[in-house]
Write a structure and sequence with these properties.
By secondary structure, the protein is mainly alpha-helical. The chain has a single domain, classed as Na+/H+ antiporter like fold, CATH 1.20.1530.20. It has 14 helices and no strands. α3 crosses α5, α4 packs antiparallel against α5 and α5 packs across α12. The N and C termini lie close together (11 Å).
């Protein structure tokens, strides 16, 4: 597993570096970055989710999906408790962003291509559970961090995101055993195959916009990244070891938890008038570091998860 993840991350890193260079050379502008991000969010990722559910109905998969939901919920709770105790409010005006960044993973843009490459369709099938729980928690607990309040209207908006709708549609098609016509499904698979390169290009464009000098001089960013990339996934690994969850579900949950800080934090910081520059710096720094930390964490987990 370690070798598979390392090789895939190396490929993803090369794409991210290429995107970084393209942005610096102004081959791609910020408008182009937004367009690619929207394409990935609105079209490519939903196509991938729907295609992975186009498999024969299997009671074992359904049971595994339910276990994956429970594992995802526990993983997020572990992260929330960790951040609550290890990110204090005192002398830290941006503590709410630090806590958000330490808990919530980029399980879509980074998680999908990584898990798809090492665990295939079944891994992405289980990952949809983590992504659904992620959306529920970000639009409840995450929003309460940013706004100090919560409303059902905002939760409804989060639940109407393209990924949630695509997941629900895919689950319905799976349970009613409806198979998309072969030609249409083949076309959707072509679109889904764009996920990895586009996701890493978006990450590369984002890193290219960050002020690296300021990032490297901010100790808070180091601490948040350490919590997100090392402490949280190791705590999740301990939970997975104790509960003896099956191999594929365990690794899907672990990789999702070990992904860098979510791009959602930057988008929500912009929307709710918070320090979005700082949010994007956490995202950029943790994304670069994750290319090293994810293989390290999975290597350690290999001694406990079988």
């Amino acid at each position: 597993m370690f070798v598979l993840i390392f090789n895939q991350l190396l490929k993803m890193l090369i794409i991210m570096i290429l995107a970084f260079i393209c942005y610096k050379l102004k081959v791609v502008t910020q408008e182009g970055n937004k367009a690619i991000s929207n394409l990935l969010l609105m079209v490519v990722n939903p196509c991938l989710i729907i295609t992975v559910y186009q498999t024969d109905y299997n009671a074992g998969l359904v049971k595994g999906l339910l276990i994956a939901f429970v594992a995802a919920c526990v993983s997020h709770i572990i992260g929330i408790v960790m951040a609550r105790f290890l990110v204090p409010e005192k002398n830290n005006p941006e503590y709410y962003l630090d806590r958000f960044g330490a808990v919530y993973s980029n399980c879509g843009f980074i998680g999908i291509p990584l898990i798809y490459s090492v665990l295939g369709n079944e891994g992405v099938f289980y990952l949809t559970a983590y992504m659904t729980v992620f959306n529920l928690f970000t639009w409840t607990h995450g929003l309460s961090l940013l706004e100090n309040k919560f409303s059902l209207k905002q939760l409804k908006e989060g639940l109407l995101s393209p990924m949630i709708i695509a997941t629900l549609a895919a689950i319905v098609l799976f349970f009613i055993r409806f198979r998309i016509p072969a030609t249409v499904l083949a076309s959707m698979n072509y679109v889904a195959d764009m996920n990895t390169p586009l996701a890493m290009m978006v990450a590369g464009f984002s890193v290219a916009q960050a002020d690296l000098k300021r990032i490297f001089s901010n100790l808070h960013i180091y601490w948040v990244s350490f919590l997100k990339l090392i402490v949280m996934p190791l705590l999740v690994t301990l939970f997975l070891y104790i509960t003896r969850i099956s191999h594929d579900i365990a690794y899907t949950t672990l990789i999702a938890a070990a992904c860098p800080t979510a791009t959602t934090m930057t988008m929500m910081a912009i929307r709710y008038d918070r320090n979005y520059t700082y949010a994007s710096e956490i995202f950029a720094f943790s994304t670069v570091l994750s290319m090293v930390t994810i293989p390290v964490v999975t290597f350690i987990a290999g001694f406990l998860i079988h």
